[in-house]
Amino acid sequence: MHSLLKSTTLTQDQPFSINTDESLLNEDEAAELADELKALLRRGDTPKADAEQIQRMVSGLGDHRGLLRRTFAESLGVVGKAAVPALCVALHKHSSATVRRAAAKTLKLVGDPNTLPNLLEALLNDPDPVVQGSAAGAMAIFGADAVELLLEVIMNPNSTAMQCGFASWGLAFVGAQAPDALRNAAQSDHAEIRAAAIAGLGEQIQALGDTDARELLLGALVDPASDVRAEATILLGKLHEPSWAQPMLLARLDDLHPQVRKNAAMSLMKLKATETLNELLEKKSAEQDESVNRILQLAIDQLSSEDLKNHNDES
Q1: Which pLDDT tens digit goes with each residue over 208-225?
Q2: In angstroms, how far apart are the furthest CA atoms of the chain?
Q3: pLDDT per residue over 254-312, tens digit each?
Q4: 209-246 as b/e, with b when 16 or more CB fall inside 10 Å?
Q5: To 10 degrees, what angle do helices 144-155 and 116-125 make?
Q6: What is this structure's pTM?
Q7: Which are the contacts of 112, defined by CB distance < 8 A and separation ≥ 6?
């Protein structure tokens, strides 16, 4: 696996030196530049890619007006790879979280896979959670190239719960772009990786009809790790296949781990599985864990309401 802490500092062999002056454009300057850029984009022209102009556009990413920030980001996206060094410096070093967030999102527009280490560094090290999330979202567009790095975040003992959550969300976003990588991850020796990969298999199963992914989901329901079973149980509730999922979800109501039992009840509720009301009532009467009982009662209440609505619609 790649080293998580590999340095991504820009070196002297970059095509031009970066102006690290953080002074933002004033409102009039930003508005004037945005108007110029919008006119260029409307004509289908590419904005100038010299260092000074790129730095001015990067400075515009800190403007308080969202529409102007979008214009600067779109323009930098059109400039493409020439804007990458300045954007990476802004992502790592700018004091404004607004600029760092916008830099991550703009790197997503540029779409250069060579920026993956920079985005990874922002996900791991930036103090702002929105920057971390923006970095994870940008990483996800690179499909299979991003999967290993996102999995490393999940396995890194120094990653926070939020960073792991962003990485898992990124894997789910990757989805069908990297089917082989996710299927391999779902068979990892590490439970954390299996759980994250299973959570990301939904698009492959739902949109692509991936039978191998479906088999992996079925196996995950009886995985020795409760976290994997819990993720598989959540995914069953998202697939909109109630007749297929219901028997397996009912079986998970007897799982040894309370979180799996809660997830099973929630998934039955999401699937509007009114046919399972009697089973849910039976499970609630025997359930010893109060936190599970509360979820069972919520599911019973919601499904009873759904059942009444269905009867009223039929009458």
Answers
A1: 778 898 999 999 999 999
A2: 77
A3: 999 999 999 999 999 999 999 999 999 999 999 999 999 999 999 999 999 988 887 77
A4: ebeebbebbeebbebeebbbbbbbbbbbbebeebeebb
A5: 20
A6: 0.74
A7: 80, 81, 84
